[in-house]
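Appendix B. Extra example for self-study. Work through it before the problem class; the solution is given directly after the inputs so you can check yourself.
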Amino acid sequence: MIRAFHFIVGLFTQKHGIVAFVFFLVLGLLMHRAPDATRNNVVSVALGTVFYPAQMVVSSVGQFRSVAHENEMLKEENARLRQETYYASEALQELARLHTLVRFDDKWDYPIVTARVVGHNPGRFLTTMVINRGTSRGVKEDMPVFSMNGLVGKISKATLTHSRVQLLVDPNLKLSVLERRTRVVGFLESVDGRTLSAMIPTHAGVKVGDTLITSGLGGIFPKGIPVGTVTKIRPADLEVMQLMDVVPFQEFSSLEEVFVMGKDAEWVIQELLDE
Amino acid sequence: MNSLKWIKVLVVFIVCFVLQTTVAEWIQLFGARPDLVIIMIVSIAIKFGPAAGCFWGFFAGFTQDVYGPVEWLGANSISMTVLGFLVGQLEERFLTLNLPMKLGVLGFGFFVHDMVYFLVTGLEKDVVTNLFLSETVPECLYTLIVAAIYFHLSIGKKKRNV
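Solution. Structure tokens for the complete assembly:
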């Protein structure tokens, strides 16, 4: 075994590392050019085996640091929430009366699964994370993921014990958003895997500082989850549209806990829109 | 590299990734984080040569790829392999690099890594320009500062041992 290992090492170090370079370069290119199904399998196998113990260590280190800080915050929050509870119960009663009056039927009543983030991208381009809840806890693909601050992304792959979360900054996640003040629907995406940009009709008059929420269109995300704030407005290629930089309410690199909304994707909405 | 050194490097590798996902996040300045993984790959490549640089570079890149978009799988592996191979050509067995030289190699490697990454992912030109100015340059500078401290300490330790 050791002899075989030394033989391989000896082979790779030949020609001043060119053999090793060509080997790993070809391996990298094969992965990059592989079909989607193969790439998904490679990622799932790696996450479920080699990297899983390492993820647990990393998340434990992060959690240890935040416990003291979180305790302080929770004490303050507890005091504030006690005060708010009284007002909230009053307001709820009033809201129930109003709902009955206008026959309002647009509220979330989906089960929520709390999950701990156990895997972060160790690189500089964070677009995915791993959580410690999977199909055994009812988590399925395309379920929305959010935090106390706002939308985080959606489940892109669920296994028995853990799931992969596709973050908002993933270039493959496109999202329909609604500007809260003007109620105009737009489109949010990331082209570089780091920043978010939204495309909203010019006539809407969206300003810097306005906030975006999910529109409920598309069938995955329910309406009303906070997404982010508009920080810069730029002209788009089309005159009728404006391109705007958006800062998400949730900073993804500091996430420790998230909530998965037990809502199945309603593809029928998209099908009806297509029709 | 003998077996003991492989184990040693593996431990450093794991510790480095733990630090990158924890400490590097805590010490970020204006959104810029030092890239400890690149410092590690450059150090390994300088110390052990291009073959080790390629191996650990590929392994480090793959670890990052696993958490990236599936469509870009392999981009980090390729760019880190290139980084490990190029920097490995300046192996310490043949050359003696002082602190400024090491920092120069690291800076060069950082830019090469990012350029190869942008090339493989096929991002548009204006997106690359924006990323280069807003991410690559500040993070490279921050990484150089952290690396200067690390290289200074490691050179001092080597001198004491001599």
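Self-check: Chain B touches chain A through 53 residues (CB under 8 Å). If your reasoning did not lead you there, revisit section 3.
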